[in-house]
Design brief:
The chain is an alpha+beta fold. The chain has 21 helices and 19 strands. The protein has three domains: about 130 residues, Nucleotidyltransferase, domain 5 (2-Layer Sandwich); about 200 residues, Exopolyphosphatase. Domain 2 (Nucleotidyltransferase, domain 5); about 140 residues, Hypothetical protein af1432. Helix content is about 45%, strand content about 20%. Strands 1, 2, 3, 4, 5, 8 and 9 form a seven-stranded mixed sheet that branches. The chain starts with a strand and ends in a 5-residue tail after the last strand.
Length: about 550
């Protein structure tokens, strides 16, 4: 199936980093191609990017069933060949447009395929791009950026504000994002999707309870998802996905259902979707496929049914009666990443990243005021010691994240909380951090107290030498910040640092600092080891 689009969209504007605003709109036009290798299809978009606009030139889609083409978690030769054939056709089409840059990503199925490396190497040797298998958090970030770009270029009523919940119901997994005042606060990636659900219950396909059983599972999936969101009460629901969009097209064409369409958004009232969904509640798989329009171009038209069920159950769980379906795909997020001046993969605004860290720290019961004060002190120490470490803005943001999260391990066990903090951070979804960056944040939090980094620590030694040095530098600063609020009452608001001979002198606006001196004497060891300076704290009267 080939569809042509000529829609101009505004490139994303990102708080705290270069964007595609008026000040950066002097570059030449560039033709790019983005490819999404999903569970049920390979999809590609060719677009022209110039100034702050993305103009879609062409889109193509090649249905390929990756779940059906996998045996025991391994891609079959047949499905590999089908994927290669799709990439060949996309590459040929791209050449006719003069594409200069590619970005190709794969999601859930390839993420879990045992033999994915064999296929990825084959792609790398054959095509002018690498197929990047993205993580769940990176997929969430891309959808968030796609939604932000779309809402920022739409009517004011769609601009992200308040508490918005976004969900992409996919064939193999479902991405959910909590967005507060336009910032990505929390994202989760559940291995629950429409195709996966139908496949799980294939043994019941001849039962008249097939559809009802699938729906009960879908309802449970929404309960699980909302439970992981910790009682979030959204004011709006944005739901998308190819099966959701297929249902809207089918309902309008076959049942004359009229939805409110406003530019790039369709408003769906729960009642109309629920009425159709309940009308085919007790049918076999075959009858379900017929009821979903067996002549559609979907590999499995019945996937509409669990998608609509999840949409309805999401409304029930949130108490909202309406869902907004935005016209966006993962490829829109990829295109936003390719705008001139944007940092690209894993990039997210510093404000959003710190908001995510705060959400995680609160989830694990960390004292909000204490975490924020540690972040502030660590940031000031970082800025005032730049002559020693020479690090930049991104490294400071990693330090701030570690500062906000360093004590979350106390949720598990107070005695070894620094080690548990490492475990929690390393296994938490944080959109906007690469796997290496998340590892750095986890390690810095791990060394905020306790023994220093050493060759006996396997996780630390697995990092590259460059990253080990960075971890030691950031942890050295963190330990000082930690020692300045040991009583956790935020006595010291600011620090004023200077280097005098072989010492880092830290001045504070307090007279009684005996406790801070005691704590600093036990925490300055790493700073001395890394930077070769002793650390002394000076009270107000000694200025």
């Amino acid at each position: 199936m080939i569809a042509v689009m000529t829609k101009a969209r505004m490139c994303k504007q990102v708080d705290g980093k270069p964007d595609c605003s008026e000040s950066s709109k002097s570059g030449p036009a560039q033709v790019v191609a983005v490819i999404d290798c999903g569970t049920c299809a390979v999809r590609a978009t060719i677009a022209q990017i110039q100034d702050n606009k993305v103009i879609v030139l062409d889109t193509v889609e090649y249905p390929i069933d990756l779940i059906g083409g996998s045996i025991g978690g391994r891609l079959t030769r047949r499905v590999m060949d089908e994927l290669i054939s799709a990439f060949e056709r996309i590459t040929h089409l791209a050449s006719t447009y003069g594409v200069e840059r590619f970005r190709a990503v794969a999601t859930t199925v390839l993420r879990t395929a045992i033999n994915r490396d064999v296929f990825l190497e084959r792609v790398c040797k054959t095509f002018p791009f690498e197929l990047e298998v993205i993580s769940g958090p990176e997929e969430s970030r891309l959808y968030y950026e796609a939604l932000r770009a779309l809402t920022n270029s739409s009517a004011e009523e769609y601009v992200l504000s308040g508490t918005d919940l976004f969900m992409n119901i996919g064939a193999s997994s479902t991405v959910t994002c909590v967005i507060g005042d336009g910032l990505l606060l929390h994202s989760i990636d559940e291995h629950i999707g429409t195709s996966r659900m139908l496949e799980q219950f294939r043994d019941f396909k001849d039962s008249e309870q097939f559809a009802a059983t699938v729906d009960r599972f879908a309802q449970g999936a929404i309960r699980v998802t909302m439970g992981r969101l910790h009682m979030v009460k959204p004011t709006r629901l944005f739901v998308t996905g190819s099966d959701v969009r297929a249902y809207l097209t089918y309902a309008q064409r076959c049942h004359g259902v009229e939805y409110i369409k406003e530019k790039d958004f369709i408003r769906v009232h729960k009642e109309s979707a629920q009425r159709w969904h309940e009308s085919i509640h007790r049918v076999t798989h075959e009858r379900l496929s017929e009821a979903c329009g067996g002549d559609t171009e979907n590999l499995e038209p019945a996937q509409m049914y669990p998608a609509v069920g999840m949409l309805c159950h999401l409304c029930d769980a949130t108490g909202l009666e309406e869902v907004i379906v935005p016209e966006l795909t993962l490829r829109d997020g990829l295109l936003a990443d390719m705008c001139r001046g944007v940092r690209g993969p894993f990039a997210i605004s510093r404000t959003s990243l710190l908001s995510e860290a705060r959400e995680i720290s609160q989830r694990y019961g960390m004292d909000v005021a204490y975490a924020e004060q540690t972040r502030l002190l660590a940031s000031e120490l970082f800025d005032q010691t730049k002559s020693l470490h020479g690090l930049g803005e991104r490294e400071c943001t990693l330090l701030e994240c570690a500062s906000l999260l360093h004590d979350v391990g106390a949720y598990i066990n107070v005695h070894d909380r620094h080690q548990h903090s490492h475990t929690i951070i390393a296994n938490s979804d944080m959109a906007g951090l690469s796997p290496e960056e998340k590892g750095i944040v986890a390690q810095v939090a791990r060394y905020h107290r306790g023994v220093l980094p050493n060759e006996g620590h396997a996780d630390y030694m697995r990092m590259s030498r460059e990253h080990r040095v960075l971890i030691s530098q950031l942890a050295a600063i963190m330990r000082i910040a930690y020692s300045l609020d040991v009583d956790r009452i935020q006595r010291i608001d600011h620090v004023y640092c200077s280097i005098q001979q072989d010492r880092l002198v830290v001045r504070v606006d307090r007279r009684r600092i005996d406790l801070e001196r005691w704590s600093l004497a036990r925490k300055a060891d790493l700073f001395r080891e890394v930077f070769g300076l002793d650390v002394v704290i000076v009270p107000r009267e000694e200025y």
